[in-house]
Design goal:
Shape: globular
Number of helices: 6
Radius of gyration: 19 Å
Strand order of the largest sheet: 1-2-3-16-7-18-4
Distance between the termini: 28 Å
Helix content: 10-25%
Strand content: 25-35%
Structural class: alpha+beta
Order of helices and strands: EEHEHEEEEEHHEEHEEEEHEEEE
Bound molecules: fe (ii) ion
Largest sheet: 7 strands, mixed
Length: about 290
Amino acid sequence: MGLLRTRSIADDLPFGARISGIDRESTFDPVVRAEVDAIFEERGLIVFEDVEPTNSMQAAITKMFGPGHAHAGELAVSEGDQVEGFIDLETNGISEVNGEHLSYYLPWHFDQWYSSKFIRAGVLRPISLPAEGGLTGFADGVQLYQAVSPELRARFETVNVLYDSDYLFWDMKFGRPRSYKQVRDSGSSAEKAAERANMRSVHPAIWQRPTGERVLHISPQQAAGIEGMETPEGDALLEAMCREIYAKMASYFHQWKETDMVIWDNSRFIHSVSGNSPDHVRKMRRTMIFAD
Ligand SMILES: [Fe+2]
């Protein structure tokens, strides 16, 4: 202790932490690593503030996490774009969401639902920020599990949710915004959708952490139905749960600074992007940490 300055992310939230005072050298310090690991395990979301905004620093922070700290993949450390292990996230597509034209709006979801490699966490930093908007929302599945209606929750205790690439973007099936439609497609998102065509996967709606807490982990985006219950009744049940999640979530929306990096537990949290005016570009850079 002592090297880092840590505080909660917001006074009224049971998850998340802010840490400042970390530099590249201190990411190798075993005391710092243990402290940061413990905070991440407990709070699930860390905003690192006032960090050097470089690929090297993002790689250093990424490599702090995971058993043996060696699960970040081979992250190159050169400072150019298109570096292996880093994925740039941007879109020039425009959505109409509840009457508003937004670029880079994303509904609540978790990442890489289609991947066979389990993604433990992501580390995100801004490359180009819009003048306003472009906030990333986070909602904790531990908080959600406790907050949703126990009667509804009981129906999901042993249920698997199906995810399908057919329901990417505007074809979202469950938990849709009141109105949500395409104004302008983004070439890159169409390419990505084609890459993922016909991908289906199954995830438990609720799982238990080794620490004993139960986690409600449903991604409204890409959800195709309840496994073994792809019926009007099953669909109505999943829709009801998505609405319950929206109604009961204690969310945190992060307003980015250029010197922020955020790590979130992708197996515990769902996240979203608020969108921004189509007049501005928003570009983020992400690394991933794989589980064992
Ligand atoms: Fe995401």
